[in-house]
Structures are given as structure tokens and as C-alpha cells.
Specification:
With 58 residues, this protein is of the alpha/beta class. The protein has two helices and three strands; from the N terminus they run βαβαβ. The longest helix has 9 residues. This is Exonuclease V subunit gamma.
Length: 58
Amino acid sequence: MRTIICKSIQSFWDMADNQLLEGLDVHCVFQVNEGLRAFILNYQEQYKIRSISFAEIA
């Protein structure tokens, strides 16, 4: 099982759009609010991402 670390929203979209995240776990370390988190999770099935997690940034 591989986990891809995304450091920015742009890196997430670039990799997702190029099918580089299919079947993988993704961990986002950029700051997100609840709306952006929900928006990203909405695309999990479309991009065939196994799981998406988010870092808790204080």
C-alpha cells in the first residue's frame, strides 16, 4: 500500500487529473477548511483514489 503526500491543492489536482492517484492512498498536508475537504472527498470516487486523509494543522 502506497501513500502519496500532496503538499498543495495544485499538486493534488495535477496528479488526480493525470490519473496518478488511482488505487492509492493520498495524504494532504496543506490547510483546508470543511468546504474544501468535502469538495476534495467528493472527487475520491471519480479519480479512483483508495483513501484521502488530511493533516490537522493548528
